[in-house]
Amino acid sequence: MVRSDARENRARILAAAREALAADGSTSMNQIAQRAGVGPGTLYRNFPTREALALAVYQDEVARITGTVPGLLSGKPPLEALRHWTTDLVEAMRRKHGLGDALSPGAHQAITEQTYGPVIAAITQLLDAGKKDGTIRADADPGDFLQLTGALWRAASGPEDRSPRMLALILDGLRTHR
Questions:
Q1: Which of 44, 76, 102, 129 measures 20 to 30 Å from 5, CA to CA?
Q2: Which of 117, 114, 112, 130 is nearest to 170 (CA)?
Q3: pTM, two decimal places
Q4: What's the CATH superfamily of 50-174?
């Protein structure tokens, strides 16, 4: 069993790394340790390499996002829950590109393979809720939806961010037309 202080250190390191690597992909491990308020030994005990740290940051983010689905569905209609969830996913994917400098091509492939299943499961849950209440087409496919959303995180962000309009078009295509 992991001690509570060790869990807190790990959480602080992940939070500091998420922030630092998103802002500057070349942030050093020592800078991350300082930002987290831990010594280099604590950082390297938890994450022996920069790549291990970047992978953990991304996995933590995916777990956070996929974990929001039940709460969203309990408080919003399925299409609105899907809109909120997808917007959160798009922001995370944009941040992931900030982690890109810290990941080798093999690590990018590994993280994609590890997170695909949980992301597809979350999308399935959202789509199934809409199919059940009749607001989402019966033929809506989670894999198709994920592929379409890939265009959203590649769309320019900032004042000319087209992703909200593009998401509205995607969601409109999912609606049942009664």
A1: 102
A2: 130
A3: 0.82
A4: Tetracycline Repressor, domain 2 (1.10.357.10)
